[in-house]
Amino acid sequence: MIPPRKTRTIHIRGLPVGGSAPIAVQSMAATRTRDLAATLRQIRILEEAGADLIRIAVDSRADVDALAELRAQTDARLSVDLQESYRLAEHVAPFVDKIRYNPGHLHHHEKEKSTRDKVAWIVDQAAKHGCALRIGINAGSIAPEYDARFPDDHVSAIVACAIDHCALVDNQGFTDYVVSIKDSDPRLVVEANTRFAAERPDVPIHLGVTEAGMPPEGIIKTRIAFEQLLARGIGDTLRVSLTLPFDDKGREIAVGRELIRDIEQGRFRSVPPNFFDGLNIIACPSCSRVENEKFIELAADVKRMTAYAQAHKLTIAVMGCRVNGPGETDDADLGLWCGPTLVNLKRGEEELGAFPYDAILPRLQQELDALIKSRASKR
Predict the structure, then answer these.
(1) For the whole model, what pTM was predicted?
(2) What is the pLDDT of residues 242-262, one digit of tens each?
(3) What sections of the chain are H helices per DSSP?
(4) Cys-Cys link to 9, which of 18, 113, 182, 267 (CB 3.0-4.6 A)?
(5) pLDDT of residue 10
(6) Could you tell me the fold of the domain covering 280-377?
(7) From CA 270, how far away is CA 260, in angstroms rounded?
(8) Which CATH superfamily is domain 10-264 in?
């Protein structure tokens, strides 16, 4: 049930991706990279689960130093997430097989330099060290110029960004790259990737539903997107992003393999009636950016505490870090993004304050009750 894919085949240290190659399944280490023992354990767990590629995040020189040590202790294919510090590409490229940059983060540093020049520099580092690239676009962190160009059309904004960055990389004569366009709403993921694939059928695509949340809802959201896209011949590599305890991260690989097998064999599962009609909790899958592991427990506690509000069409976002948290909670009715000791609470784009982990749930419930009451009064 997966038709032949039209994309070109690229290589990530011997791993073919795209074209007739098997769909590659990857995941991300959830630990802080500089915690060598914990991160190496994560790599081992994901390797044993059958991960084709393992992504880790690098946000400082301390992470770079740890990366060099990790490379010495594992032969796993490693991908690195540059986050907001694109200049780190120079230091990480010797130790990894793939570099991911987010176009929406390039404007944060060296604002006097053009995006074109920054991308050219990243491409140069990748080419020099034999790394592949991922142009990784998150719907929650779009570069400001695309939001300005398409203020009322989010999908057009992210697709245009993807197409433009492909052109920037193409202009450097570099072809070993993939594109990902992700969101927490699988319907947007399907629409955006379908439109991008129609414009650039040659470019391999990495699939994912970001911040899908906890099982089983996170698996359902991911399945919705993957069934729709893979059945169209769209998708060359993928990740299932689930909010899980660190020792259970291998489940992402198992679920990914299961989804591919099901779709290949025509085992499609219908979406439960009114799946999108009630309360929607989105939560990031945890990664090395998370500064407090209590985030994972908090996400589960939020799910339990809000069970009484299941019938209300509201979105609550629980994000684990300062990189994606502020922006990717903007579209939620209520958003939490977690720091080392405090949890930041938002109502839409409005900041409501930062609260200790042991005090955030009552405050969240207060806001949730107020929001439900306010909506009821307007009916």
Answers:
(1) 0.84
(2) 999 999 999 999 999 999 999
(3) 36-49, 61-73, 89-92, 115-129, 144-149, 154-170, 186-199, 217-230, 250-264, 294-305, 325-328, 360-377
(4) 18
(5) 98
(6) Sulfite Reductase Hemoprotein; domain 1 (3.30.413)
(7) 16
(8) Dihydropteroate synthase-like (3.20.20.20)
